[in-house]
């Protein structure tokens, strides 16, 4: 044991033995204080992370805690500090790669800050289920709330977010005065569309995500606006549901048209499905049709050909959300919308039109 004499070690061992042979209750602050030869107040300071304790004394107390198996009473600490070191998370899907990566970043950031996570997944943002999920988290006494919600809050008239709890919303409209963290959806879609137009394509077709999706609608709006600014009337959108199957169906429709030379898909999975359809229809990529995705999945560089796509950092979105939530918990004012930049990753699925 660091910093203890042999006599001190013997005293600690004796205390541990007495503890185990006596009552079944767990070791208390008083037990640790006796074992370490310090006051109960000093043990309390160490267990609460206070800095006004000499390093040698801190080591003695920590050694005594480890030997006795002492664990600070979390409920008592929360009662004293007003914080429970737990963050509640409500997610409306766990099937999305982006949501899972965002959740992973949140949990890592929370762990580094000494917080645990209480997760409630929901199949959809139905207003009748959200209040119950929120009530469950309040019963678990969370310090703050993160909602991963790829939808328009304004479309859910009955959905009321808590006003008495620090809250951060990911992927949604900033309609309700809450802190919103989001990828720069519009900026990424503009980059994709401008690339294809800059290569000389007469227009860009779009495979969009679900009409109810906040992310999809912003990407589609930026695509359309970019075409209009170039004096090009946007062709009709082919809607998918983020899946490769929906991208394949849209791709079959587009592959049958000789006037289609450039496609911007709202995510990489739909781009992959469209690429399969183009291959099956004998349309060469990129010689006959160029295609751009959105997400930059780990596998996108292994598509055939490797996919040009818009990179969005799920890691940054998750860690930034946790950072802003912790700042609110500590009393900082809630900021407004925070956008995480995107960047275009150019690979072999795009080129100038060859005819």
Automatic annotation (TrEMBL):
<dbReference type="Pfam" id="PF00356">
    <property type="entry name" value="LacI"/>
</dbReference>
<dbReference type="GO" id="GO:0000976">
    <property type="term" value="F:transcription cis-regulatory region binding"/>
</dbReference>
<keyword id="KW-0805">Transcription regulation</keyword>
<feature type="compositionally biased region" description="Low complexity">
    <location>
        <begin position="10"/>
        <end position="21"/>
    </location>
</feature>
<dbReference type="InterPro" id="IPR046335">
    <property type="entry name" value="LacI/GalR-like_sensor"/>
</dbReference>
<dbReference type="GO" id="GO:0003700">
    <property type="term" value="F:DNA-binding transcription factor activity"/>
</dbReference>
<feature type="region of interest" description="Disordered">
    <location>
        <begin position="1"/>
        <end position="26"/>
    </location>
</feature>
<protein>
    <submittedName>
        <fullName>LacI family transcriptional regulator</fullName>
    </submittedName>
</protein>
<dbReference type="Pfam" id="PF13377">
    <property type="entry name" value="Peripla_BP_3"/>
</dbReference>
<dbReference type="InterPro" id="IPR028082">
    <property type="entry name" value="Peripla_BP_I"/>
</dbReference>
<dbReference type="InterPro" id="IPR010982">
    <property type="entry name" value="Lambda_DNA-bd_dom_sf"/>
</dbReference>
<keyword id="KW-0238">DNA-binding</keyword>
<dbReference type="InterPro" id="IPR000843">
    <property type="entry name" value="HTH_LacI"/>
</dbReference>
<keyword id="KW-0804">Transcription</keyword>
<feature type="domain" description="HTH lacI-type">
    <location>
        <begin position="27"/>
        <end position="81"/>
    </location>
</feature>
